[in-house]
Write a structure and sequence with these properties.
48% helix, three-stranded mixed sheet, 2 domains, alpha/beta
């Protein structure tokens, strides 16, 4: 097959840190404090040697990254697909345009859905929105309960690397991840009612209590529009690009050993 290319939406699975071959900033500080010392205890000397090995180790794929490459192998060689359907994805697909409209209000910019597919020698993907200045991706929350209303930093590394891949593909260095809270389509609400009804032992007949509970769960009418979007800025550096290339090359090598 041709050289393996990684989808932007899955790149973060490859970029996960291999703790056995990666030294943390805190560990590096500890090592730098130990190196100048002439006399060390036995434990300190052992720690110094361990940290030196980690600092100088060749980068390696994490176990999670290896699992992802195995999934790619199964797909490319045998057509085996992992589960790709869920109620969360269903909502995201159905309300994508609504979320982009909400992002337009926040960004004070007229945003339209991008349909152009991008690829280079390493990654590929289709960003939600591409403007001359930045890339933007929307994530539609399942409900108010799952919406990151109070988060102050982007903790999801999968999404962070997805945006970095999009910037690399488009030649841009600025991007925004927008968590959006928009109305849930009626059909998905009805599906959820049936699911909850079965879980409560009601069978196929949805009780009035279940209907009220589910509708209340999805009700966002009390939340002001400006509180229904959470935006995180993600930038791209030359080091990010070098790290992506490095890990994809390792993935290609590992793929050939499976």
């Amino acid at each position: 097959m041709k050289d393996l290319k990684i989808r932007a939406s899955s790149l973060g699975r490859l970029m996960a840190t291999n703790k056995s071959t990666t030294i943390t900033l805190k560990q590096l500080e500890t090592l730098n404090g130990l190196l100048p010392k002439i006399k060390l205890t036995e434990k300190q000397a052992e720690l110094r040697d361990t940290l030196l090995l980690k600092r100088d180790a060749e980068p390696g794929l994490s176990e999670g990254a290896k699992s992802y490459v195995k999934e790619l192998y199964q797909y490319h060689e045998y057509g085996i697909r992992q589960e790709i359907k869920s109620k969360y994805l269903d909502k995201g697909n159905e309300v994508e345009n609504l979320s982009i409209e909400l992002a337009s209000i926040y960004m004070d910019d007229f945003l339209v859905k991008n349909d152009e597919y991008f690829e280079n020698d390493y990654v590929c993907g289709t960003p939600d929105v591409v403007t001359p200045e930045y890339v933007l991706d929307v994530k539609s929350s399942w409900s108010a309960a799952t919406f990151p209303m109070f988060e102050t930093e982007l903790k999801n590394k999968i999404y962070e690397w997805q945006l970095k891949a999009y910037m690399w593909l488009t030649g841009l260095t600025e991007s925004y991840l927008c968590y959006c809270l928009v109305e849930t389509p009626e059909q998905l609400i009805l599906d959820e009612m049936r699911r909850v009804s079965w879980s409560r032992g009601e069978g196929a007949e949805v009780s009035e209590e279940t209907e009220i509970d589910v509708r209340n769960y999805f009700d966002i009418s009390k939340i002001p529009t400006e509180r229904r979007i959470k935006v995180f800025n993600v930038k791209l550096t030359d080091k990010d690009i070098a790290d992506m290339k490095k890990m994809i090359i390792l993935a290609r090598k590992y793929y050939k050993t499976i």
